[in-house]
Amino acid sequence: MILLAVLFLCFISSYSASVKGHTTGLSLNNDRLYKLTYSTEVLLDRGKGKLQDSVGYRISSNVDVALLWRNPDGDDDQLIQITMKDVNVENVNQQRGEKSIFKGKSPLKIMGKENLEALQRPMLLHLIHGKVKEFYSYQNEPVAIENIKRGLASLFQTQLSSGTTNEVDISGNCKVTYQAHQGKVIKIKALDSCKIARSGFTTPNQVLGVSSKATSVTTYKIEDSFVIAVLAEETHAFGLNFLQTITGKIVSKQKLELKTTEAGPRLMSGKQAATIIKAVDSKYTAIPIVGQVFQSHCKGCPSILEHWQSTRKYLQPDSLSKAEAVRNFLAFVQHLRTAKKEEILQILKMESKEVLPQLVDAVTSAQTSDSLEAILDFLDFKSDSSIILQERFLYACGFASHPDEELLRALISKFKGSIGSSDIRETVMIIIGTLVRKLCQNEGCKLKAVVEAKKLILGGLEKAEKKEDTRMYLLALKNALLPEGIPSLLKYAEAGEGPISHLATTTLQRYDLPFITDEVKKTLNRIYHQNRKVHEKTVRTTAAAIILNNNPSYMEVKNILLSIGELPQEMNKYMLAIVQDILRFEMPASKIVRRVLKEMVAHNYDRFSRSGSSSAYTGYIERSPHSASTYSLDILYSGSGILRRSNLNIFQYIGKAGLHGSQVVIEAQGLEALIAATPDEGEENLDSYAGMSAILFDVQLRPVTFFNGYSDLMSKMLSASGDPISVVKGLILLIDHSQELQLQSGLKANIEVQGGLAIDISGAMEFSLWYRESKTRVKNRVTVVITTDITVDSSFVKAGLEASTETEAGLEFISTVQFSQYPFLVCMQMDKDEAPFRQFEKKYERLSTGRGYVSQKRKESVLAGCEFPLHQENSEMCKVVFAPQPDSTSSGWF
């Protein structure tokens, strides 16, 4: 009796978790014709979900479904026929009214005869236990039409009990979860698990990347083991991580309803489904249920040469500071991705030298095999007559959003070959280091070219005999950030000469916390405290900064604080400013520093009242709950009042992810003899030198030299014009996201997000013996354009949403020092220019015949300029103020 009760409970439990019926999937009755209505619609918007702000379309039809064959050995083995009839295409947004592109157009005119006939041809679906065994249609049907049929057929794949499994349907091989209730089944498809071959790429850096979320829920209402209604909704939403106004959303819905049943075709007899299919129509062929790729053909579209002829006027040198230059650059990069090598090479060869650098930027940024082959054929690295073009190519490679092994292999080959310019040879190696890091971040560390490049960098550093070669490989390692290179960096940091030692320590500074081990910090402590040899101030302060920024111990912090007061005067002031900046900005080390400062021996007036002009300051450019932009400026002077080093950094953070947006370092040494001053300890024999080094978007660039040596200094002082020297100038493709989506309705969606900028970073150092004054100037000029393009295509009608955001900004830092007396006078200022901020939106619906609807919006505002605080005495945050301008909206035909 107890056993019977247990069995009864198990049966009731199983019943409650499944839908009433005798099969595991849908089951059709013999000799019946099921008449249903079907519709699929798609909407695109900016994520606000308002129908009036959306564009899209609906495809609807009647559907006849009949059972042709059932396996006599099992009810769950069925062959069904599905036929779409009375197809119609219309707007989802009925408010379109007279502006509707479908008004007055029959389905035949909208779709074309071939498409309409193909869509209304019957298809066959072989189901076993409710799952698709095979999908049958006719050969040579348009792929886009077959996909719509696949989308309808996939709705008939379901199971009537709860559970998680993998299914193959139009979306690919996907993980699905079923929740069965009385008379209802809910199917949740994990779209991020779907395995389907689709093109696409994205920017790996999280700050510059795109976040997306996709959901798919299908609800079945079941009666007598067959559907009376199916409602499927699939959404794809995305947003640019660092700019939350850049968003988009695709909503795709399918609806299937049973209207009636009537007498249908008699059941065909036979043992095998294949025999039945041949008897129905021998022209049927099995095709994959998974959606297939199709390309819409552009009729009468311009060639790549015609595109360039309309683009080149915007890329003249004098126009690069304008947003339209970047906008056209991004558009042309997209066109180049479909161009052949010969077409690209033809444009390169015919262009003038004024526009050629911008064309090289675009061709390299396209990142296709054809564009790479074309640019490599065009550039002659054996000659030093086209250094500007070679450098623009290399920097564009370094900023590549999704580099591949082919690009790295090409640069390795160039490095091993003959290169006419030593500067270009150095730049090639530096960019090889960048590509190694980017490929490793994308799980490509074991690629043959990456392994070869690692050996090239580490082996070259180990065997380097000339200072120039050592510097080159250290700069490459500064980009590659190879963990296996840390022992070599420690060796050069501690035992190397001044400039090499400083470069090695600044390279260590770029490694993440897990790599700054206790062993690394032991070496850095020896460098700072000069336990083995005397080091330059720049090396010692960098070593201290690494220790303080990487989980310092109590004793490490205490020893650094105790050293203040025993250092050269300006270094005393600099280290004091660093500690105060850590406390004021609440950096991670602030807690341990506060603990140490409770000891009177470390925290007293004698130590904290040191005078000097060196400084360190960190502040916010912008701050929000999900992101922050920070700037930091630290300036170290020599005891004679001459600039030793200025270091300006800008970082962008999204959560825990960060991007080193820019760093501009100006260094000078060995200038004390000019004013008959005494050099600081350890710097008595330094050659006269001044130069600038820059990091841009996590890429270390090749440093530039203002002068090197006393004679070079004097000649440039006598002939100086005060004009700044450019560190980097060009067009950069910074954000690059491309995604092709197979919607479960059968439609194809594309999401494109691109961000480009025209940038010009320059710097100058002026030195006047007459006025006993030095001045450094760093100027950043940036124009940024971010574009998004979302489309949903059925081959005969297309809906799209285009949006763009653009601004033109400038940031200038000037430091002036008068050293005619001590303490010398210092004036520092960092100003952000007033910047326009523009937003555009364009929505459209277009037939393949050319008729279309378009709606456009434009919004403008002005970001007020401001001056950033650079001293702790003036720490009020620079606030961004928007001055709104009138909006404009237009819509109509095209």
How would you describe what is shown here?
The protein is an alpha+beta fold. Helix 3 runs parallel beside helix 4 and helix 21 (569-584) crosses helix 22. Helices cover 30% and strands 36% of the residues. It starts with a helix and ends with a strand. The strands form three sheets. Strands 6-7-8-10-11-12-1-2-3-4-5-13 form a twelve-stranded antiparallel β-sheet. A hairpin with a 2-residue loop joins strand 4 and strand 5 (131-138). It is built from 24 helices and 30 strands. Residues 1-22, 873-885 and 889-894 have low confidence and may be disordered. One of its GO terms (molecular function) is lipid binding. This is Microsomal triglyceride transfer protein large subunit. One of its GO terms (biological process) is cholesterol homeostasis. One of its GO terms (cellular component) is Golgi apparatus. It comes from Theropithecus gelada (Gelada baboon).
